[in-house]
Design goal:
about 200 residues; mainly alpha; globular
Amino acid sequence: GPFRANQARNTDYLLFVDPERMLRSFRINYGQPTSALPCGGWEAPDSEIRGHTTGHLLSGLALTYANTGNEAARAKGRYLVSQLAALQARAAGAGYNPGYLSAFPESYFDRMEAGQPVWSPYYMIHKYLAGMIDQYQLAGDGQALDVAVKLGDWVDWRTSRLPYAQMQMVLGYEYGGLPEALANLYAITGAERYLAA
């Protein structure tokens, strides 16, 4: 029927998307070489929200695997998780705080905390965190939980050091479903720091 046809079309598209292009901005952000062509639109190299589509892709692949058992979707998700985990492990060497994972510099958060113009960096963090949680829960990728825990620890560190008034200002910037993702991470790990964050 039409729903099955739509599911098949969506699966085909998710498998069509080039993971190297999705990883390009992340690799550049961590000083790693890449020969992949840049994406355009909101994923363009100069976009302040580059990288968020990779988070959506992680979730889409996990949902597709959970609903169809498509092994290619599972394998592609695992590849993306492994590559992002390797970049996250390079955070300190790239000049970032431990656990940071993004396709843009951590200085975007400095700008936000100073009340300067920046698009919505926590929205992107939500997409990565939610994608990793989906990969863990729906596709059984244990490495994805490790990445999520480290990123959740980074969010906890970044936000817990801010005075109340400054945190309220930060919440004036779009942050997507980050509270939900942190609550989900708490539900998985039992670590109350994520619930507090």
